[in-house]
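Retry 2 of 3 after timeout on previous attempt. Resubmitting structure tokens to design endpoint.
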């Protein structure tokens, strides 16, 4: 099994490091043809506007949409979640548009642009998960097929729709590998 991490912008090195610590083979994906070499793909946090634009410039956006529609498992964290979404409120930017959620960017307020909180995520076990939010997106709408795996203040912050997983927080910035393990189980299936 080889997991790709989209390496166009953002904190992809942290995902690579976490997967390597878990003993998983990784590939930093930059070119469309790299997509044929991986069994699953992580889209990191960063700046979704920039990442979306670079995706277009590198001509990887369309092939990636096709791969995801054909069943490639993907996991997007923060900016990655935004890119997977169908729509961003009041903002036009290149998206993959494969996950039936609507996003409000930077929606957790200025003073608390970054914060950490212990969350209950039954899908990954009983022990609370320390979630790191950095200028995080809020899921303001989601379709019926979207499964909400965890919430914070009643807002979905970890969601899944079939082969697509997305979180508004950054597990790659902690030592807790459980969400990555969950994603690897999706890839194994
Ligand atoms: N605020 C960023 C955006 O809108 C996302 C922040 C992050 O990935 N930590 O793209």
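Retry 2 succeeded. Sequence:
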């Amino acid at each position: 099994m080889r997991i790709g991490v989209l390496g166009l912008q953002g904190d992809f090195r942290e995902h690579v490091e976490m997967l390597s610590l878990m003993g998983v083979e990784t590939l930093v994906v930059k070119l469309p043809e790299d997509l044929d070499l991986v069994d699953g793909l992580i889209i990191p946090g960063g700046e979704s506007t920039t990442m979306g634009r670079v995706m277009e410039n590198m001509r990887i956006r369309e092939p990636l949409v096709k791969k995801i529609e054909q069943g490639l498992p993907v996991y997007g964290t923060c900016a990655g979640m935004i890119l997977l979404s169908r729509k961003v409120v009041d903002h036009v930017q290149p998206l993959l548009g494969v996950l039936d959620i609507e996003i409000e960017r930077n929606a957790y307020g200025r003073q608390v642009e970054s914060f950490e909180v212990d969350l209950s995520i039954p899908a990954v076990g009983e022990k609370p998960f320390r979630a790191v939010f950095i200028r995080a997106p809020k899921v303001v709408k989601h379709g019926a097929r979207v499964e909400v795996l965890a919430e914070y203040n009643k807002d979905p912050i970890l969601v899944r729709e079939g082969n697509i997983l997305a979180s508004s927080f950054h597990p790659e910035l902690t030592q807790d590998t459980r969400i990555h393990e969950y994603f690897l189980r999706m890839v194994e299936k």
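Attempt log closed. Residues 45-48, 78-79, 82, 105-106, 134-135 surround glutamine (CB under 6 Å).
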